[in-house]
Specification:
2 domains, 48% helix, alpha+beta
Length: 212
């Protein structure tokens, strides 16, 4: 089972989700979406909270209010962190998470530390309580959801590639037509000039004949 939350910031709805326990956290680590952002209490045990962004969005695009809500939610779901007045939260794009064979369930590292953001937050119960009211527990097939997401991405890539190929064909065809037009124009000019010379030659011959 996975817990889902929803919130609205600047007129747009966002979805957050987290696992029930460390075993579910392992499934989330396998099948989260590439556009997801992962949140965790720094150096303390806590839930793994994911924020789902749209394709192409970056950390810098996340509204500060939304970052605050994600941080408060992950703090509230930390056995030790929820008792503290303030804690440090780390968050990073999901693809930056690194899992090696020697790590225990729920433990992760990072591929690049420069892609990890850290923020210190103070306890704001009203923030996470607002999210808690939207909590919904769902029995979902995480692997199937990820595979469907990837399939749709592949289809979209194929569509874009087809459009690019069609546009390239049109460009090549237009270049061919333009080249033919230039060639015809050059031939017409050459024929016109040749006719003028022929006429002048005939006139000259007529003068010679009259003189003789």
């Amino acid at each position: 089972m996975v817990f889902f939350f929803c919130t609205e910031v600047d007129g747009r709805e966002y979805e957050l989700y987290m696992g029930r326990d460390k075993m579910e956290n392992e499934d989330l680590l396998k099948y989260a979406f590439p556009e997801d952002v992962w949140f965790h209490v720094d150096k303390l045990s806590s839930a793994h909270v994911y924020l789902r962004l749209k394709v192409g969005e970056k950390l810098e695009d996340i509204p500060k209010e939304l970052v605050e809500e994600c941080c408060q939610l992950v703090k509230a779901n930390s056995i030790s962190g929820c008792k503290l007045n303030n804690v440090d939260i780390v968050y990073t794009p999901y693809p930056n998470l690194k899992k090696t064979g020697d790590m225990v369930d729920g433990q992760v590292g990072f591929h690049k530390n420069k892609k990890v953001k850290r923020i210190n937050i103070e306890k704001k119960n009203e923030v996470w309580k607002k999210l808690e009211k939207t909590r919904e527990e769902r029995d979902v097939d995480l692997r199937a959801l990820r595979e469907e997401r990837d399939r749709e991405e592949r289809e979209e890539i194929k569509k874009k590639q087809k459009i690019e190929r069609d546009m390239e064909k049109l460009r090549i065809e237009q270049e061919r037509k333009d080249k033919e037009m230039r060639s015809y124009s050059l031939m017409d000019n050459t024929n016109t000039t040749s006719n003028c010379f022929d006429n002048e030659s005939d006139a000259e011959r007529e003068l010679v004949d009259d003189f003789m």
